[in-house]
Amino acid sequence: MNVVLLGPPGAGKGTQAVRLSKTAGLLHLSSGDILRAERRAETELGRKAQEYMDSGALVPDDLILSMMVQHIGREEAKNGFLLDGFPRTVAQAQGLDVRLAKENRKLDAVVCIEIDDATVSKRLTGRWSCPNCARVFHEEFSPPKAAGVCDACGQPLSRRNDDEPAVVAERLRHYHELTKPLVAYYRDEGILRPVSGRGSVDEVFEAIRKACPGL
């Protein structure tokens, strides 16, 4: 089964993708995680993508498409994949369809997690992570035991550049302008499965599985 998770930043796509990939045996491919790994490794792709990501802008279609198609072609994805954070534009979606068709593959479902902008902003701007062990905390929902310090390794916490308030606002603007049209695109394809992202992690997880049998 080949699935895409859609939704604004902060909708919980990554959290749900991890759980769904395990239950359905799919390879979880997060465009954000892959790009950040490229940045840490200081690859050519990472250097090109960094200026876009730090400003909240989308990485150019051709760059992200080539990267994701490469990972979709991995042996681990032969039994199915779950895309998280990609595609983000109609052009990327069309490019993905063309690349998949060349291999006699297609998307089976696109799950859209729906949530309002105010909730997105609250979730993202309150998020802090440990640069040492990558553990993530939230000021309101999962605060560290000691303010500003990682529970696991004791290192100072930091806020990702793309979670700064001004950048979050820019990310939402890009979502509404460029990514939201994907909803109409996939609805026309007959594979869109909308679910509410306002419940608990477990509630959203069950809603996705109900909307998309097989996950």
Please provide a written account of the structure:
This protein is α/β, with parallel strands linked by helices and 215 residues long. The protein is 48% helix and 14% strand. It is built from 9 helices and 7 strands. It has a 5-stranded parallel β-sheet, with helices on both faces. Strands 5-6 form a two-stranded antiparallel sheet. α2 (31-40) packs across α3 (44-55). The longest helix has 15 residues, at 165-179. It is globular, with a radius of gyration of 17 Å. The relative contact order is 0.19.
CATH architecture: 3-Layer(aba) Sandwich
General shape: globular
Secondary structure: number of strands: 7
Q: Tell me the Rg in angstroms.
A: 17 Å
Classify the secondary structure makeup into a structural class.
alpha/beta
N-C termini distance: 8 Å
How many helix segments? Answer: 9
- Could you give the order of strands across the largest sheet? 2-3-1-4-7
* Top CATH class: Alpha Beta
Q: Number of folding domains?
A: 1
- CATH homologous superfamily identity: P-loop containing nucleotide triphosphate hydrolases
Summarize model confidence as the mean pLDDT.
90
What ranges have pLDDT less than 50 throughout 5 or more consecutive residues?
Answer: none
| Helix and strand pattern | EHEHHHEHEHEEHHEH
- Range of helix content: 40-55%
Indicate the CATH topology. Answer: Rossmann fold
How much β-strand is present in the residues?
A: 5-15%
Tell me the major beta sheet. 5 strands, parallel
